[in-house]
Write a structure and sequence with these properties.
- The chain has 382 residues and is mainly alpha-helical.
- The protein has one domain: Rossmann fold (3-Layer(aba) Sandwich), CATH 3.40.50.300.
- It is 51% helix and 6% strand.
- It is built from 17 helices and five strands.
- It has helices at residues 3-9, 34-43, 51-80, 99-106, 117-121, 126-137, 160-166, 187-190, 196-216, 232-238, 251-269, 279-298, 312-317, 319-330, 339-348, 361-370, 372-378, and strands spanning 89-92, 112-113, 220-224, 243-248, 307-311.
- Strands 2-3-1-4-5 form a five-stranded parallel β-sheet, with helices on both faces.
- Helix 2 (34-43) packs across helix 3 and helix 11 (251-269) crosses helix 12.
Amino acid sequence: MSVLSERLAAPRRQRVVKNPIPWYTPRFWHGMRLSTWLSALVRNRFALSKLPTSFSITFFSLFNSLFAAADQMVYGSRVARVEIEQPPLFILGHWRSGTTFLHELLIRDPEHTFPTTYQCFVPHHFVLTERWITPWTEGLLPNRRPMDNMAAGWQRPQEDEFALGILGVPTPYLSMMFPKRGPVYPEYLDLQDLSDAERQRWRDELDNFFRRLTYRNPRRIIVKSPPHTARVRTLLEMYPHAKFVHLVRDPYDLFVSTVNLWKSLNEVQRMQGLGDQSWIEEYVLSTHERMYAAYEQDRNLLREDQLYELRYEDLVDNPHDRVRDLYAKLELGDFSRAEPAIVKHLAEVKNYRRNHYELPEQKRSAISERWAGYFERYGYEG
């Protein structure tokens, strides 16, 4: 273990937080088909301790398998013929860098659509079931996300990375299911070490998901998944005219907020005891390094009208003007069509205050050393 890793692995007192979500509240794994769920259990040697939740997932996975087959039978050929005419817009940036806030603003445009929580929850059958299942299951979901108190619900925007995991595509997000194992599938963050077959499967599953979204709503898809920050090259191969917005944030705040995020997600989504969570801090450091090594390598592939970069701090200070500038830079069309809805949303969240975190000097030193390139490139003081 390196000196820096030892600093970050040093034991400290941790506040134990009770799981705020009842056992019967849907986890993402409730959306899996039976084959995907059983594969995850076999891979983790059935190391379950959340038995009521696990039994309910097994029960619902049977219905997911049936609904997925029916969905494919009814809509499969139609979805296969769909053309994605409006290139997607990908919101890039590390976790907790403001991507959710920007996503909430950009989806106010009536010419935009987005993956909803329900669509990411059951990506294999939402075309068939969304209209009749969501109305009577909405009450099962919490009103707010436990990690940041933002609005939650079936129709709220969600990360397509969850959809990929539920479809059976390996993703680092699967570490939440069995957090005692620590990180999983790091190679799927940037896709660079995959075989040709593995990379092609990833591309096919994402493209099919986007086609299903387009079949339901043929407008520009606004996508927000932090792992896509490390996949610009692949996404550009798939959608040569795609647009990208990249956010950055004060690295010290980014580190602490992301550590808290993973702890919260592990608590809510786990199928076993938490175990030792000390791996999370090193995971946040190394994942950031891998993510930005890929991003800095690939960003030069983008044309001037394909990439807009901004700081989280500037977005929060003046979101209206930053989004207006974004529209102009990326040539997204007339900002006035989205402006009234954006202004209304900003009025609803006007009391939002961003957090600032204090860190021991040892950890500040570790972060500034490991993420030195990020500090320098984006103008933050180490």
